[in-house]
Amino acid sequence: MNLEISCRNLSPDEIKTLESNGCTCDDWTRVRVAEQFDPSRCSRVTFSGDVELGSFSGSYTDRSGVSVKHGISDARIHNCRIGSNVLIFNIGDYIANYVIEDNVIIRNCGKIHTEGTSSFGNGTAVAVLNETGARSVKIWDRLSAHHAYIVALYRHRIKAVEKLEKMVEEYSASVSSAMGVIGRGSSVCDCRTLRNVKIGPCTKVEGAISLNEGTINCCSEDPVHIGPGVIMEHFIVCSGSTISESTLIDKCFIGQGCVLSKHYSAENSLFFANCGGYHGEACSIFAGPYTVTHHKSTLLIAGIFSFMNAGSGSNQSNHMYKLGPIHQGIMERGSKTTSDSYVLWPARIGPYTLVMGRHYKNMDTSSLPFSYLIESNDESILVPGVNLRSVGTIRDAQKWPTRDVRKDPDKLDQVNFNLLSPYTIRKMFEGRELLTKLKAVSGTGSSSYYYDNMMIKGPSLERGIDMYQTGINKFLGNSLIKRLEGIEFKSDDELRKRLVPEHDIGKGEWVDLAGLLAPKTVVSQLLDDIESGKISSIGEVQRSFREMHDNYYKWEWTWALERIEEEEDKKAADFTADDIIRIVERWKKSVTDLDKMLYEDARKEFNLSSMTGFGIDGGEEIKKKDFEQVRGEFNSNSVVAAIREHIRIKSALGDELIGRMKKISLS
Fold first, then answer.
1. Which one of 84, 402, 540, 589 has the largest count of C-beta atoms within 10 Å of its C-beta?
2. What are residue 146's phi and psi, to 5 degrees?
3. Cis ω before 289 (30° cut-off from 0)
4. Which neighbouring-strand residues pair with 237?
């Protein structure tokens, strides 16, 4: 039924048919129906309040092939507007104050009702990161990770945060209603209680125990599934997500493409695109895109994460037991924890860092990305830069884009998957400088160095400097080659003109807004515009984030050229083709060296020790054959093949540009 069309009063004959089917109503004049309404499709229904009914025809067939005619039976309906071709039966208590759209199935439920006026979870304050609520984020239907990041972590921009919160409050007021909604094509089956819940189209809610004060945002392209045993209070769930198998949710935002299942428990937490939570527990976490935890013994608490995988038994502590749970932790994008890891908050872990063991002192590795943080005899040992050569890091970077399950055409989170970017490379510059200073202060040849409650062994420091230089060379070369590709230059002047960026945006520091990489100046300008009133709506804020994402590569070149000039100690206006050749040769060596390290790291997965447990009842030959059947051969492994192909392609790419530059040199 089109819920906007007018309805008519029941005819005497229709009332007679309804009553003969066991239907009752104190005042039939308050029941209005569509023109083609068929009263024979309603039986044993008690109507009260103002009720509108659509036309019922045809039938619903479930997955087992059992068909039931559309209509209403064995239910009490109070103050509802019900669309066409709806099936409602076996309602233990009642359905009250709801708009039920066309083609909805509701069966075997207890109570579905709206009490008073509700904003359906919008405007709920989620005490993320800090359990005391000092960084609370008010959630709303279209919250993005970037919006939440600014509200939670830019508290120094008081006026901007206040205005953002005011926008959410205004939106929450605009969607408040005394009527809940169950959207077109949805099904709500075998559920006990739904109170003040707004359900978007094509949602499946099956076997939930209790849903209270929340919204399920959905679309036909990317439905939501709420499964058995689920209890949720004060929540918003976005398209493509699944909440199932006795999961407990309280005061949470669950973004697009998330899965929380297998008895997972979460409170006062935010989950953004493609997060996964199974078995374990979350309290006051900011789970940026691709935060995943699979284990019953894992607790994530009072931290911000993204592109993160938490090992079994991972834990953090945010209590200084005299002052309460006031501390927070930051694990920057791509970090991982191994089994039984522990980190004492407050701490900040740099991008793409692997945390192993238990760390009982506060630390900050944010300027030392791609590291291993290892515990030995209660001492924290940092191995800087070593994760750059880990095949696991490359595999992660390759798998994230392929695991984007969002099918909704309107993506809320703008996710940049780049492993090397102005954000991570800036940190490599910082790391190179920091390690060089440590070396200078302690003296060359020192067996160990100490930095911020961590020990760095001498050989690790030397290797870290080299690894960061390799990463820097690779990124800057990548950017340069991309800038110059496909253009035949006749002179150095033409080359120099191409090197000049179209604008100055991109210089200076870059930030990671929970998946979105952008220049800090652009983010600051957005906040200035919010404070001044130039940006006054929540939709304009969203558009600004999309524009930042769309302009990434334009702004990346501005930043990269500035760094190239620093590395070469020469302005781009003075560059010649010979300078480009030298940079590209250095890039080729860095790419090849790094790929060879990745290749050797992958080979470790195929050595004899890795074969332990294979060929259980045979000798070495049986072990090898069994291993190859299960794991495949080294040379045919897809990751290994990709590394070899990467070396070939990149070498050819570099040679092609060098060839074009030599033409200029020889002219």
1. 84
2. -75, -40
3. no
4. 216, 254
**DSSP labels for 89-112?**
EEEEEEEESEEE-TT-EEEEEEEE
Using DSSP, how many helices (H) and how many strands (E) does the chain show? 13, 45
Predicted confidence (pLDDT) at residue 2 exceeds the cutoff of 50 = no
How large is the average pLDDT for residues 261-276? 98
- Is residue 498 within 8 Å of residue 462, measured between CB atoms? no
- DSSP letter at 217 equals -
Smallest Cα–Cα separation from 519: which of 489, 553, 491, 488?
553
The predicted model gives 396-400 an average pLDDT of 84
Mean pLDDT of 541-551: 97
Tokens coding 114: 């709206």
Look at residue 484 in the predicted model and tell me its pLDDT: 93
Is pLDDT above 80 for 3? no
Confidence bin at 1 (pLDDT 50/70/90): very low
| Nearest CA-CA partner of 390 in 314, 479, 467 | 467
Mean pLDDT of 261-265: 97
Q: Where are the beta strands (DSSP E) in 378-515?
A: 379-383, 448-451, 454-457, 510-513
CB 371: neighbour CB atoms within 10 A? 28
Taking residues 591-610, report their average pLDDT: 73
The token pair at 510 is 């870059």
Phi, psi of 587 (to 5 degrees): -65, -45
Q: How many residues make up the chain in this entry?
A: 667
Percent helix, percent strand, percent coil in the chain, to nearest 5: 35, 25, 40
611 exposure class (CB count in 10 Å sphere: 0-12, 13-18, 19+)? middle
pLDDT digits (tens, 9 = 90+) for 19-72: 999 999 999 999 999 999 999 999 999 999 999 999 999 999 888 999 999 999
pTM of this structure:
0.93
Q: What is the β-pairing status of strands 204-206 and 187-189?
A: parallel
* AA letter at 186: S
The CA angle 425-431-433, to the nearest 5 degrees, is 110
The three state secondary structure string of 168-191 is HHHHHHHHCECCEEECCCCEEECC
What are the two backbone dihedrals, phi and then psi, of residue 586, each rounded to the nearest 5 degrees?
Answer: -65, -40
Q: Which residue has the tokens 């428990």?
A: 265
Q: Which CATH class is domain 1-113?
A: mainly beta
**Residues whose CB falls within 8 Å of the CB of residue 246, separated by 6 or more in sequence, listed in order:** 228, 229, 230, 262, 263
